[in-house]
Each structure stands twice: as C-alpha cells, then as structure tokens.
Amino acid sequence: MADVTTGSATPEDPRGNRPRGIVRLARAATSSLLATGISQLTLLVLLSTQATGAGMAAALAFVAGAVPNYLVARKWAWGRRGKPRVRGELLPYLAVIATGGLTAVGATKLGALLIAPLDLPHVARVLVLDAAYISSYALVFLMKFALLDRLVFAGAVRTRAATSQS
Description:
The protein has helices spanning 21-48, 54-77, 86-115, 122-152; strands spanning 2-4, 159-161. The chain is mainly alpha-helical. Keywords: Membrane, Transmembrane, Transmembrane helix.
C-alpha cells in the first residue's frame, strides 16, 4: 500500500492518515486573523474618511480580506497547490465566505441603522460600526471553518491508494 498525497505538509494524525484537525484549525484561524486585520484596516479607513456608507465600506472591507485569506488558507491550512478547480473548490469557497461576508455587511448596516438616531460623534460611530463588523466575524468563524474543511478543501487530505504488486 502506498500513500498518495495532494501536497499537504501538515502533520499526520497518529490514528489515521488525515492531517490533524487542530493544526488546520490553528492555521485557518491565523489566516482568518490576518484577513480580519486587512478588513479592519480597510473598514476603518473607509468609515473614518466617510468615503462610503456603512454597508459599502463593510462590503469592500470583506473583499479586501477575503482574497488574501483564500490564498493563504488554501496553501497553508489545507495544503492545496496548483490551479484551483472552479466548480470543485473556488465556487464552493465563495459560497461559504459569502455567508460570512453578508453577515458582516448586515451587522454593520444594522448597527448603522440603530445608532443613526443617537447623533454620536464621528469617532464613536466608527467604533460602534467596527464592533458590529468584527463581532459578526467571530460568530461565524467556526461554521465557516467546518464548511471549508468538510466541503471545500476535503480533498486536500492524505488518502491511501491500493497498489498491486506483480
């Protein structure tokens, strides 16, 4: 029996041939934190400069973090290399993260609607909207990880293939 890999350098689980879930979770969390930092910076700049409304700022911030998150998480957390399959990987990934993005945009817009009558100073408004945006990310991270791990990048784990010996 020979091991066939898909390029994963992730440590193996001693009970089987799958990379350890805790390693993937830690790497995905690190990638997500990097993406969140990029999103946060984008959101704070857009809200502080009043370049866009809360919803558009959240949407642009989401995209600014989603692109590097995909590239880093795909390679580092799930060990994927090469060109991604559009239907098998890229489209499901977009569907999963779109849920998180819509949650972030919705939470930010809801926050803006709730604080609009309060006539808060600009700095306070930016901080409240930022808190709404970031809290939505915290709420959906584990759901997104599970879907990415079990649906989108499920083929990135090591598999065993039987070989015949002649």
